[in-house]
Amino acid sequence: MPFYKCRIGFIWCLLLAVLVAVTPKYWESNVGSIPVLAPPPVEIPKTQVVEDRIQKNRTLVATLVDYDVPVAIANEVADLIHPVFDLRKMRFGNPFRLEKETDGTLKAFEYKIDDESVLKVQKGSDSYEAKVEKLDLEIREKTIMAEIHTSLWEALNEVPKREYLAIELAEIFQWQVDFSTEIQPGDEIRLIIDEFLHDGTFVKYGKVQAAELVNAGRHYRGFRFKDSYYDEKGVSLKRAILASPLKFTPRVSSGFTYRRMHPILGRERAHLATDYAVPAGSPVVAVANGTVTFAGWDGGYGNLVRIKHASGLTSGYAHLSHIALGIRAGHAIKQGELVGLVGQTGLATGPHLHFMMAKNGTPINPVPALKKGEPAPPLDPKLKAEFVKQIALVQEKLEASSQSLTAARQ
Ligand SMILES: [Zn+2]
């Protein structure tokens, strides 16, 4: 036994001895002047705490009644909640906690609305009070590193909300790398992100503060500054042209060529486009700002949208199952705006996007054309000092994580 415990034990013994010795004398001397009152026999109701989850097709009133809360009280509570929370939005499976007395009086009720808010009902002196409270979230900076063996999806399998991270990354680097076709085994990602916790449990991510992608040996870095991402020199990652008309594509099923055996026509024909094999219904977006010149049916192309961009460039999106609402000739379209959905209308053996680009009317191979997008305007020189200061710390951390990943592999 450690020494301090011995000593504490000893002190307690000593105190007890003193008390035993002194107390009777105290009572002897005071018993005549102070009346000794026995505690009144008040029956203190026992509080019972129940923690459970909302059952399927059970309303709040039904749930409370299930736990012996009188119907009148359950209804009163439901009426009280009405102005602060729509009880029809109560979701089955969400946890709740209730405190009640043995006579059924409800003392408190809490229902977790989502990861960030909780509905609280509390019994006051004469009535109940209901409110929706935002949970106190604690922010912590987190570094996430992953090496890609098969896919980005697989590489992130140990982190929560990986779909969010995959989408954020693809968006940050959307002008540099087509995440749908270009991510390959051996690629690496590192990112610094804020995460929000409640009672030590992960709730959600904030924005990515800095990210690095090593793709086919090339390093791409993005630092968040005033809602946009820049490389370490302050050059915006944005380009005039997106790296892809699709967010996630498994593969290019047919490239740009002047000679190809046509799968339906059975004869050799030029394929002056890139085919992306993607599930039907995948969203197709405009690769750059421009004006829609055609939107409708065009023979073998099926549903087709053509867009005219700056500097003599045009793009075309064929075999769409649907053309997006509002997309018609003359519409000024923004980069990233929905054009339509992938389909197999016209002459197509399966769902895919037949994507065309042309420069001054001459078809060009879309893949390299998409790579060469012009950079967006540079950072305002007046903001440069602030930018450098803001990214310095996060840049250091990104570099440290980069070295630790390298060290781990050696
Ligand atoms: Zn095609």
What does this entry look like structurally?
The protein is α+β, with helices and mostly antiparallel strands and 410 residues long. The chain folds into three domains: 47-134, Nuclear Transport Factor 2, Chain: A; 136-238 and 375-410, Nuclear Transport Factor 2, Chain: A, CATH 3.10.450; 251-371, Glucose Permease (Domain IIA) (Distorted Sandwich). Helices cover 23% and strands 35% of the residues. It has seven helices and 23 strands. Strands 11, 14, 16, 17, 18, 20, 22 and 23 form an eight-stranded antiparallel beta sheet that branches. Strands 1-2-3-4-5 form a five-stranded antiparallel beta sheet, covered by helices on one side. A five-stranded antiparallel beta sheet has the order 6-7-8-9-10, with helices on both faces. β7 (188-198) and β8 form a beta hairpin. α2 packs antiparallel against α3. It is elongated and about 105 Å long. The two termini are 46 Å apart. Zinc ion binds next to loops.
Question: How many DSSP E strands?
Answer: 23
Kindly estimate the percentage of residues that lie in beta strands according to DSSP: 25-35%
The CATH first-level class of the largest domain comes to: Alpha Beta
Helical fraction: 10-25%
**Strand/helix succession:** HEHHEEEEEHHEEEEEEEEEEEEEEEEEHH
Mean pLDDT: 84
Structural class by secondary-structure content: alpha+beta
CATH topology of the largest domain, which one?
A: Nuclear Transport Factor 2, Chain: A
Q: Show unreliable segments.
A: 22-32
Alpha carbon gyration radius:
33 Å
Please give the alpha-carbon distance between the first and last residues.
46 Å
| CATH architecture designation of the largest domain | Roll
Oligomer: single chain
The distinct ligands, each listed once, are:
zinc ion
Please outline the major beta sheet.
8 strands, antiparallel
Number of domain units: 3
**Dominant shape:** elongated
Number of helices: 7
